[in-house]
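Task card 7
Instruction: Convert sequence to structure tokens.
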Amino acid sequence: MTRVGMIGLGRMGAPMAGRILDAGFPLTVWARRPPGLAALAARGAVVADSPAVLGAGSDCVLTCLPRPADVEAVAAQVLEGARPGSVLLDMSTIDPDTSRRVGRAARARGVDYLDAPVSGGPGGAATGTLTIMVGGEAAVLERCRPVLLALGTRIHHMGSTGSGHLAKLCNQVLTGVAYAAVAEALVLGAKGGLDPARLLEVLSTSSGRSRTLEQAGPAILARAFDAAFTADLAAKDLECALAAAGALTARLLLASTAHQCYVEMRALGLGHLDQAAVVIPAERIAGVTVRAGPA
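Output:
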């Protein structure tokens, strides 16, 4: 039975760890913030003293961390203890260059590496319906597929190391730009006196319809900004996408503009809110609030 290690037990990592336990894999966990450990330990997970100890006792180590620097730092610690022939599998959203550096460090220790970021949010993590984008060797993916199937129903091999992370950044460009576009469209309508609820109904049956509109629109009208995915993380993901674009000499004008919207949220102390709250700075400039009822 494959012994799995999991590091990063936040909004995504904790339910993913739960899915691994549900699938019957022996699980060892470690987290920088201990509160996430107790519930998993009560379900049978072993709590490691350090990433190195976790690496030493695992056949496959999954990391799900916020930022590129976090991934590099934790990977270095895991590799101190990891056994040759084991696999380090990063499920964070980071840039491809960082991913490739981590991959080289892993291979130097005889450890295989996959980048396998996910999409589907905490709900998809809890139900095991994530989309998983994988970069790395196909043979290593096949070894890890039983573990990944506990987490997602759509597993896509995108190519060599870093390809999974690049695919995820493409997704985050679409998402980050779309949330900002929904916010601006609704602010424009509200400023002009339209009923935001009726406008949302119209847009939802018009050519502007999108999954983002269906998610962000109701959240904005209800002012439901408890974070499923924070504006801080949206800004970070777009920063990673812009870094990747710079390395590839690709133009990302829309992503750059959307990034500024989330940076503006940070400056206003709103970075902890859900990315749908990107509407708030636009509302303040326009002097309106988008909510159900006449503007």
